[in-house]
């Protein structure tokens, strides 16, 4: 996977966390930079660790599926991308009651929930030639930046921007899956 694909993957993986962060920021009366950095750090660390866990799990299974690994990556990215596109296009109403302050454990649970797709991506990355440390670091750092920005922009932008970011992220995942499949099929 090249640097462009790594950057695109990191951006795509951070968009669901960005969408959540916009909502978190919108729930606060005046989001402070300290709260945004704290939220970004929690989400970034979790989002950076989950692809490593997925990669380790996928690496164990790699020798059993080496002949069709590119199809696994393609399907995983495609399904996750379509799920994000569907969520980005949904018109679900925002909940009426929003917390005034975000507790640590609430942010951790939310961070884990938004990072499960990164774990699935990690499983898929075990089947391709990728520097998982660089990729996980890029995902974690990008998530940190996007979530911090999302919290600060949340009050002004509201949930509409979050849904659009998720839609874009889903389309990017689908494109990356197609690119990996194309690269593998054209190399043989």
Radius of gyration equals: 17 Å
SSE order, as H and E?
A: HHHHH
Sheet having the most strands: none
Q: How far from one another are the termini?
A: 16 Å
Strand content: under 5%
Report the total helices. Answer: 5
**Structural class given helices, strands, pairing?**
mainly alpha
Strand tally: 0
Overall tally of domains: 1
The helicity comes to over 70%
Structural shape: elongated
Unreliable stretches? none
Average pLDDT across residues?
80
Commentary on this structure:
By secondary structure, this protein is mainly α. The chain has one domain (3-187). It is 84% helix and 0% strand. The protein has five helices and no strands. It has helices spanning 3-27, 33-65, 69-89, 104-125, 132-187. The longest helix has 56 residues, at 132-187. The two termini are 16 Å apart. The mean pLDDT is 80.
Provide a short characterization of the protein structure.
With about 190 residues, the protein is mainly alpha-helical.
What layout of secondary structure does this protein have?
Elements: H1 3-27, H2 33-65, H3 69-89, H4 104-125, H5 132-187
Key phrases:
elongated; 188 residues; mainly alpha; single chain; 5 helices
């Amino acid at each position: 996977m090249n640097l462009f694909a790594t950057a695109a993957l990191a951006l795509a993986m951070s968009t669901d966390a960005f969408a959540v962060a916009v909502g978190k920021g919108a729930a606060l009366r005046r989001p402070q930079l300290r709260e945004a950095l704290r939220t970004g750090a929690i989400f970034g660390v979790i989002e950076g660790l989950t692809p490593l866990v997925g990669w380790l799990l996928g690496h164990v299974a790699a020798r059993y599926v080496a002949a069709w690994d590119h199809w696994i990556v393609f399907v995983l990215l495609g399904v996750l991308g379509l799920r994000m596109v569907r969520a980005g296009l949904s018109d679900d109403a925002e909940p009426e009651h929003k917390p005034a302050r975000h507790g640590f454990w609430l942010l951790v649970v939310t961070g884990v929930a938004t990072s499960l797709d990164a774990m699935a991506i990690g499983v898929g990355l075990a089947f391709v030639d990728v520097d998982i440390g660089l990729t996980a670091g890029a995902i974690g750092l990008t998530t940190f930046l996007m979530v911090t920005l999302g919290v600060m922009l949340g009050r002004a932008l509201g949930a509409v921007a979050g849904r659009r970011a998720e839609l874009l992220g889903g389309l990017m995942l689908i494109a990356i899956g197609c690119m990996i499949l194309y690269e593998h099929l054209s190399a043989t």
